[in-house]
Amino acid sequence: MKKSLCLVGLLITGVVFQATAQDEGVIAKKERIDRSKGIFIDIGPSWTLGKNIGDYKAGANFEIGFQQRLNRVLTIGPSISYLSFDYDPKETGLNNAFIGGPYQDQGVTYYDGLYIDLKGGDLSLLSLAMNVKLNFIPVRDNSIISVYAFAKPFITYATRTEVTGTATVLQNAGDIENGDDWQTLGEVPWEPGTELIEDEVYVSDELKEQSQVTGGIFVGPGIELFPARKFTAFLQVSIGYTFPVSFVSTESYNDNQYYGTDFESFIRGMEKYPVKKEGFPSVNLQLGVSYNF
Questions:
Q1: CA-to-CA dists, residue 259 to 182, 203, 293, angstroms
Q2: What is the C-alpha to C-alpha distance for residues 222 and 240, in angstroms, rounded to an integer?
Q3: Most exposed of 16, 172, 187, 239 (fewest Cβ within 10 Å)?
Q4: What's the confidence (pLDDT) of residue 31?
């Protein structure tokens, strides 16, 4: 995913440089439209993209920026955007329940279970981007519609809120498919620093709130109505890739990692549950308006 987005960004950038280097002719490089500057604002929904990428419901994005038309094909300018995703337990489903075993104790076969009720883990990204937009059809003062592609390399301040919860420990010496055979042994807080195995295993501090500066790129297509008029409207889809950030991904954990000879074997490796740190792809629908002058 990361390589594909970077490749698309490089291709768009390459076409931009080629377009700006052409002589007078089809794109009329030196010709300027009356309103070559603009301030724009857009807003819309966002979704995570790809397998195991977070337990998040649809998010939201907001952007405001400035643009300068260098000619009838190429537009550049900076923008500030905000992208947010809230953790949704409905997206987690059964990924917060684990079964370890079978184990043996004095000839008795049993299983251990763990059910973790989670909250927190909301993710937000505040980004500063450089927009490069390439119009497929040169924009004129009387243009009605414009179709374009864009690339937005950005730096971002990413924040994930603290993840906490309650873990219920269970045991089953019968049929694991029968809910009545599961016995509750107790509950423990699933919070950073909680002791899981005495003096050995603790819930990781990585569940605490984390903030970092990283980067990434957005690429995508768009369509704009009356691009050279005082007020214009546009609709665009951006596919983004943010370099590794910390987020909630319960699907990255599964029972098979924790099978062993006893409960200690089962619980080892759970310290960082449910967070992971990887690249974060997303897709965003953006509806916006621009004031041109």
A1: 18, 19, 65
A2: 15
A3: 187
A4: 60
Contact 135, 150 (CB under 8 A): no
Q: Whole-angstrom Cα distance, residue 289 to residue 141? A: 18
Residues ≥6 apart with Cβ < 8 Å to 233:
224, 225, 226, 287, 288, 289, 290
Structure-block tokens of residue 271: 């310290």
Predicted confidence (pLDDT) per residue in 228-255, tens digit: 999 999 999 999 999 999 999 998 887 5
| pLDDT interval class at 23 (50, 70, 90) | very low
> pLDDT (tens digit, 9 = 90+) per residue, 84-137?
999 999 998 888 988 888 888 888 999 988 899 999 999 999 999 999 999 998
